[in-house]
Design a protein that fits this description.
- The chain is mostly helical.
- The chain has one helix spanning 29-65.
- The protein has a domain at 28-66.
- It is flat and about 65 Å long.
């Protein structure tokens, strides 16, 4: 079995900022506030992406309906 001599030198992947179902008891109030803000921004981003897709679908539907 070969030993990887550079394994400790490689950068380790950064854990996700938030993981669904994560134990929240270990987080401070400030950390919880940061997570809430992060998730609110992500929700807004998802809503914007959905609105763009819906508008695209509606435009295609109107074009092909004619």
């Amino acid at each position: 079995m070969a030993i990887d001599l550079v394994a400790d030198e490689r950068p380790r992947p950064k854990p996700p900022a938030h993981e669904m179902g994560q134990d929240l008891a270990v987080l401070s109030i400030a950390e919880l506030d940061e997570r809430v803000e992060l998730l609110q921004r992500e929700i807004e981003r998802l809503k914007e992406a959905r609105a763009r897709k819906e508008a695209s679908r509606d435009a295609a539907s109107a074009f092909f309906k004619s």
